[in-house]
## 1
Amino acid sequence: MKILLPVDGTELSLHETRFALQLVREGLQASFVLANVQAPASFYEIVTSQDPELIEDAALEAAEDLMAPSARLLEQANVAYETAVVSGDPAQGVLDLIELHHCDMVIMGSRALGPFRRLIEGVSVSRKLLEDTPVPVLLVKPPVED
């Protein structure tokens, strides 16, 4: 089974990576696509950049930095993974990666937005994926704080 594991360098991303590794320890045969979706370059960045490749390189470097903590956990557990970086809308980026890498499932964190934040921020990435993805999505809730 190939599982897409979108991460953003947050503690929640590490929590979802640990959860995925727990599933492997309990017998799930899986490899992972560790992914990060970068925001597209701003109009200012595009206009002021003398070299568009510099923008792309900076986004790739940022994504690698954000994926590094989860990558270390996967490496320490000797679990096979590959990395992927896309730019654009997070939900659409994840959908594109599912298709591109032929993933069977997505494991991702859920921020559990309250009603006020949901009103301001709109539909969450996880909600969009639940509605639009062709594969199962396992949402990992944030750890309970003591």
## 2
Amino acid sequence: MNKDQVKGVGEQVKGKINEVVGKATDDPAQEAKGDMQQVAGKIQKGAGDVHEDLKDSVRKNP
């Protein structure tokens, strides 16, 4: 696992928390912020996944 994968998952978790708090407090702005954080986290994790796949591919086929 690389730092982008870890940070991406962390951002997804923070986003989910913000989304739930926004729903509980009836705050659409916080709910939207949570949704955006989750999307950003998924993108960052995806970039980390691609990086890991590329690194693994290079190791297998030098």
## 3
Amino acid sequence: MPNPSQPSPAQSSPWVLLSLVVLIGLNLRPFLTAPGPLIARIAADTGLGYGGIALLTLLPMLLMGLGAFLVPGLQARIGTRRGMLSALLLLMLGSLLRLWSANGISLIFTAALCGAGVAFVQAAFPGIIKQGFPHKVAAVTGLYSAMIMGGGAVGAQLAPVLAHGGQDWRPALAWLALPATAALLLAWRVLADGKAARPDKALVSRLLRRPRSWQLMACFGLVNGGYSSMVAWLAPYMQAQGWSVAQSGSLVAIMALAQAASALLLPILASRGRDRRPWLGLTMAMQAVGFGGLAFLPSTLPLLWIILGGAGLGGCFALSLVTALDHLPRPEEAGALAALMQGGGFLIAGIAPLAVALLQAWSGSFVEGWLMHLAWVAIAALLATRFDPAGYAAAMGSDEPPGLVSKGAFPSTSD
């Protein structure tokens, strides 16, 4: 019997499906990046200190992390289509309510709403991509990741402009409800009724018994901690170096554009072979140079450090998703593994902005925070050496080679 709560991309053309990938990706980061350049004005109007400001990034990250553990079970109960539409509605409402954020508590509440919505989308969408584009997983995942980073660039760049120097920060944040509404409407059209497989309710517990799942979580979290800290503190750090609000917003946008370009390009290059480790190593090296430059030479070639760091972060995000999806052949299982990787990873990543804020309060500088991330990158690079594709089946306890794609209700759209 067809399940009315499940999406069936086969009912739409590949270009319509790609449009949904683009639009959903663009909506997943602006609510995090837009407040960064406006932090000084937001703090003055709401009374939030650095600890409270950190919650605007920390709380959504924690929700993304916790939500990823719950989403496969929630999908099994209510279906992916209903869950996706509800999640996009939460994202739209969270953005819109920022127009009436009178104090710090209400602003943090809107961040929680947005984070809850994004948590479901990020956990469910990689599986949808694998099922809809089984022979182009790397390329479409790269496009999706690039749009996530590109959306972050748009949020950081437009927020200072729309805020008129910070005076109108509430409408500058609330306008993000418009693209969220567009994504909701397109998802309503594209995620039509169908017979896509739901995740097994016991799948999460089985995956959590695999050490490889925890290794993927740790690697993803250590890397994305750098992203969450850059989103939260790059603009204030550069403002302390003498950059204006608008200029620092442009730097965050440049970082996000570098992320987008790398997230799009590197998975395509990496798709020529099954082993993603050399490319992951390249992204770790770029991050190390970026964080090192920000820590030791912030006034010397700052654009270079920000571009390299952003490219390393964006490429690593996309390649990590591809690597997780590579581990298992069935879309619903691979999607659940990618969700868990993001879940545990975002719990780690969510701690990073608060850790940097505490280090800043202790030392009076953000330099120690960048050095912390330099150490995190080194640990992540060591973990990534374990991801040998020849051992995927053994690592996940699967008898099927990861290169195979099981037949499901989402026919190939590779043509």
## 4
Amino acid sequence: MITAFLPCRKGSQRIPDKNIKPFAGIEGGLLKIKLDQLLQCKRINRIVLSSNDERILEYAESLNESNIVIDRRPDYLGSSSTTTDSLINYVPSLIHEGHILWTHVTSPFMLDKDYDALIDAYLNGLDNGYDSLMTVLKLQGFIWNKQGPMSYQRDKLKWPMTQNIEPLYEVDSGAFISSVENYIKYQDRIGSKPVLFEQEKIKAVDIDWPEDFTFAEYLWKIKL
């Protein structure tokens, strides 16, 4: 049993009504796009939509889709101060068995076929010693922190060829897959040994800031 968990809290400090405002001319916005994608996935058995926003809940109810389970999330778990850790600990009270694919409406370029591929990679990983999966963006370049380079050693070569730099991986928040048992055991949406599933840059686009929203709309219009 594969259950998609789709959290959509009320409000957004950086992008007001981010989840449901029109996106690239599409009414229902990012929420409509993501629900359409998840409903088309062959490997997903049901979708749990968790929100404390009545507009989001009403939209989901209007679809009248038997595969969508609506969770009216308590307000204390839907505020700007709610931590992801708190929401993670809440999820097993909604989903009691099988495997959870946690995803977000803010990853509009992850299509149904991408989710099916993730699930296949996750199940294959279970057979090969992994216990979970998360999507990542490979970073293979000159990456620094305030103290200096993190991805290469300037005392050996000041400007190495980027293809020779050991890659780092940024968690792009596209999707996380793990079992209900792992949620309870680790109090986390991944286990102790996740598959790092590399995504193309466009798949890894995560809408978090106003300029992300504008950029994603432009990409949507020219790409899809």
